[in-house]
Design goal:
There is one protein chain. The chain is of the alpha/beta class and 351 residues long. It is 44% helix and 13% strand. The protein has three domains: 39-191, P-loop containing nucleotide triphosphate hydrolases (Rossmann fold); 197-265, Helicase, Ruva Protein, domain 3 (Orthogonal Bundle); 274-339, Winged helix-like DNA-binding domain superfamily/Winged helix DNA-binding domain (Arc Repressor Mutant, subunit A). A five-stranded parallel beta sheet has the order 2-3-6-1-7, covered by helices on one side. The structure holds adenosine-5'-triphosphate. It is found in: Cytoplasm. Mg(2+) binds at residue 80. It catalyses: ATP + H2O = ADP + phosphate + H(+).
Amino acid sequence: MEYDAQTNTGANEESLRMVSAAPIGNEPVSDEELRPHALDGFIGQPLLKAQLQLFLDAARKREVPPDHILLAGPPGLGKTTLAMIVANELGVPIRVTSGPAIQHAGDLASILSSLDAGEVLFIDEIHRLPRPAEELLYIAMEDFRVDVMVGKGPGATSIPLTLPRFTVIGATTREGMLPSPLRARFGFTAHLDFYPHEELEKLIERSADVLGVKLDGQAAHEMAVRSRGTPRIANRLLRRVRDWAIVHDLDSVGPDDVKSALELYQIDAEGLDRLDIAVLNAIVTHFNGGPVGLNTLSAIVGEESETVETVCEPYLVREGFLVRTPKGRVATDKAWAHLGLTPREDVSKLF
Ligand SMILES: Nc1ncnc2c1ncn2[C@@H]1O[C@H](COP(=O)(O)OP(=O)(O)OP(=O)(O)O)[C@@H](O)[C@H]1O
């Protein structure tokens, strides 16, 4: 299942989970206060930052708007933040829309025809643009031209309108779903990766400064290791830890406060939550470690199979708790150990 940036309804149970990478509740607003505004303040992703810096410096020196930019990667890793930073660094306005918000090619035509020279047009979830809008965008990106339809029915005529040069920044969580003609029109594609713990620690320390939360000792580390490599989750955990500090009248937050606050939300030391643990438990206790099919597994944990597949599994697989085999899902030794149990046999025998 896909996250719907407009309605936040793409993932049902996901939207209730503290460790969801998609925004929940009013987070789009609270994300805003923690967004860095310059490339310097953007934590981590050093290679991508260096590439982007060069790309922007060259455009500035040439005194032309930069080529179109595609930002690809899982939710919550900073694609929107980077788009805003690019506009800031260039000192130009940014217009924000998304694939699902554009229902007809005409919606896109009217946005394009109102862009000022040099402006950045940010299209989130660009892989979800309807096909006619996508085709209109190819021409606009390449030739800086849009065909505006005037009138209706047989008498309708198309009037070509020349656009000033502008920069499209597309963001996608599904790069593979982008048709190649669209992908080919981006001069620079940036792939965002999950963040290592040390980078998340720095990010949490920066956010804590912004929120006025004083962190002691390993407090940032304890949040970082539970953040599933994702800045949005790191910032969310920090906000819940801040709640804990406020309610307990703490002047500063130590590692034990972090552990207590996050235990309350059933997030364990590896960032697994109730549903992740339920999935691992089901495989281990009902199927002696697996293999087990997705539908059976989902029925046991009482969850939609899409949620298990797209929300739990990617992290469990990435962290080595689970493997997907042709026969079904298998819990690894790490999963057994995490549950405090002894594996029945070496899972590698199953391949
Ligand atoms: N590298 C970073 N440094 C500092 N803060 C970051 C970084 N990456 C993300 N954040 C913060 O994490 C939050 C989520 O980031 P953002 O909205 O840019 O993610 P996204 O990739 O656009 O997500 P989605 O795909 O769901 O739209 C924001 O508060 C943002 O400021």
